[in-house]
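Sequence in, structure out.
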Amino acid sequence: MSKQQGLTSAELEVTQKIQTHFPRELSAEVLGFANSCPVQDLTDAIAEMLDRLAKGAKTTVPRLLKHITSIQTSAIKRFVATDHFKEGETVDGVKIISLSKNFRNLFLPKVEEDIKGTEIKVHQLLRDSKDLGIRAEIGEANEEIKLAYFWQVLKAHNNKKNWIIAYIIGTDDNLWAVHAFWCDDGWRLHAYSVVSPVPWLAGDQVCSR
């Protein structure tokens, strides 16, 4: 029987067993990520889990992120993006080489008020991963950071030739993966959809609260 025609009897038996024993203690956060997960990603994850079970391996998923440092950010009364992110200029020691169209449209109009000082954690990505997996490990409560915090992260990392990812709300009220990478002698910034099918690479750094 082809997959277009339906599930085989063996496949149907497995899916019924999964449904019967589906864990009831999963958090709304985890279920939300699963519901928003692309179908192929979810299919691949289930297939990998069943393959590991068949080989007698533990199904515990290894961690994606390793905490490497924390940055204490300062309180800011008013943060105006256009005063800081200036293409081709250096502001407070941060040199911006280029800003992508997405970043300019979604983040340059931003003005953030009464930003409290906080601790921003910086993690190293241990293996290639899409945003879905990274965000699930960080947790919904800690994934979003302010643009003002991201600026202070860049200041702390200046001249270190890093690739840095942060999840920030754009002017469209959606969460975006903002990516800064050091090229030649300055930063290039982009903004990508958090449902992009392209994974981030092991070694990249990820910010969170």
